[in-house]
Design brief:
37% of the residues lie in helices and 16% in strands. The strands form 3 sheets. It has a 7-stranded mixed sheet, sandwiched between helices. A 4-stranded mixed sheet has the order 1-2-3-13. The longest helix has 19 residues. It is globular.
Length: 433
């Protein structure tokens, strides 16, 4: 049956849609932190459908909210008053950390980032955008244009003039040998030089606090706070892409940007985008911005599916569960089990272990090739397969396809963290030449 479904998939869907595994699996159902494929095999889920099922599979509070709402009305559009959408927007604005916040709900992170770029370029009357090297922001024409990872950017055509700056990743950075403060200073100098080169009025910097598709890479805490001070002097907006880092996943903060804006770095983003985990599998994304920014569009607009009653009801139930059960603290509690355990491996194929909370990247390299090691995408594929055979689902990414992406659901238990670490350890040891 799976072979038949694979053949039908290849026949009717685009060739450029990637599938994991030599023998792809059909995930049929899920419960808690586990999923089952069509053949009855059970897997501990450390990827959540690309960090989207964030809380738990079949979370009763979410499924009930969706079922109750579906029994009333599934869709109406933004042309009508929508109580679940307003209640969700109010809750998001309250936890956003953005003053005088307004929220626009979308169906995906791509659409959220597209909207943020529209707001910034309209307000600033400029199509000049700053982005980070190795970044990823979506698959629409505008978000592909600002993506700094060419393996995910199928066209060089662009509605923007884009300038890429250093700081999004450290392991392969020319500044990797520097201390945190020196690294930040070097990246700020690079930013200032790029701004001088650009001339004119740059609209915004868009940046992921931790680069998702890029392999869960990140610079030192405080980097984007330092960037923000330079940007504010020139009137340039800061867009924080929280599609993968938001809602407490990093453990130490509710939003990824907050690691860069503590007492020493008091700046906050002008615009925050979100998606994935907030819907716990539902198609949900959005934009948070100060009212003066959100209200800058002069043309009429609607959203047919953004903030639909069904997805808003489910997302609101999910967000309330995250807050009431303090899943940020749970990420902080169990993340170190995985991070410390992976760092303790001292494996010749592990070049770097990085991340925060339950968002962990492992960069695999060919043994004996120095520091940073030569990327080994074939070893990442081998570990992915080895984990699958042992009952664990993880992801991979990075510019060279050699980074493991480990993102357990936020309700992870201590026993499940230990189980996942044991499987990862065995798969890495098996893949070592």
């Amino acid at each position: 049956m799976s072979d038949d479904l694979l053949a039908r998939t290849r026949a009717v869907l685009p060739s450029w849609l990637a599938l994991y595994y030599e023998e792809p699996i059909e995930i049929e159902r899920g419960e808690g932190r586990y999923v089952w494929d069509a053949r009855g095999n059970r897997y501990l889920d450390f990827f959540g459908g690309i960090l989207t099922t964030m809380t738990a599979h079949a979370l009763p509070e979410v499924t009930k909210a969706v079922a109750d709402q579906a029994g009333r009305i599934i869709h109406s559009s933004t042309l009508y008053l929508n109580r679940p959408m307003v209640e969700l927007a109010e809750q998001i604005a309250a936890v956003s950390g953005i003053p005088d916040a307004k929220v626009f709900l979308t169906t995906s992170g791509t659409e959220a980032n597209d909207t943020a770029l529209l707001l910034a370029s309209t307000l600033r009357r400029s199509n000049q955008i700053l982005a980070m090297r190795n970044s990823y922001h979506g698959r629409s024409f505008s978000t592909v244009a600002v993506t700094g990872n060419r393996s995910w950017s199928p066209t060089s055509l662009s509605p923007f003039q884009v300038y890429y700056v250093h700081g999004g990743q450290r392991y392969r950075s020319p500044f990797a040998h520097l201390s945190d403060e020196e690294f930040i200073a070097a990246c700020v100098a690079d930013l200032e030089d790029v701004l001088d080169q650009a001339g004119g009025d740059v609209a915004a910097l868009i940046a992921e606090p931790i680069q998702g598709v890029g392999g869960f890479t990140h610079g030192p805490d405080g980097l984007f706070g330092a960037f923000a001070r330079v940007l504010r002097e020139r009137g340039i907006l800061w867009i924080s892409d929280e599609v993968q880092t938001g809602w407490g996943r990093t453990g130490e903060h509710f939003w990824g940007w907050q690691a860069h804006c503590n007492d020493r770095y008091s700046e906050t983003p002008d615009i925050v985008t979100f998606a994935k985990g907030i819907g716990n599998g539902l198609s949900m994304g959005g934009v948070i911005a100060r009212a003066e920014i959100m209200d800058c569009l002069s043309a009429n607009s609607i959203s047919t599916f953004g903030g639909s009653p069904l997805t808003a009801a489910g997302a609101l139930a999910n967000l309330r569960y995250v807050l009431e059960h303090d899943l940020q603290a749970n990420a902080a509690r169990h993340g170190p089990t995985l991070l410390d355990g992976l760092r303790a491996l001292d494996s010749p194929i592990v070049g770097d272990v990085r991340g925060k909370g339950l968002m962990i990247g492992v960069e695999l390299v060919r043994p004996g090739t120095g520091t940073p090691g030569e990327p080994a995408p074939e070893l990442a594929t081998a570990v992915l397969e080895g984990c699958k055979r042992r009952g664990l689902l993880i992801g991979k990414g990075g510019l060279h396809g050699n980074a493991l992406r480990i993102a357990p659901l936020l309700t992870l238990t201590a026993e499940e963290a230990a189980e996942g670490l044991a499987i990862l350890t065995a798969a890495i040891e098996e893949a070592t030449p």
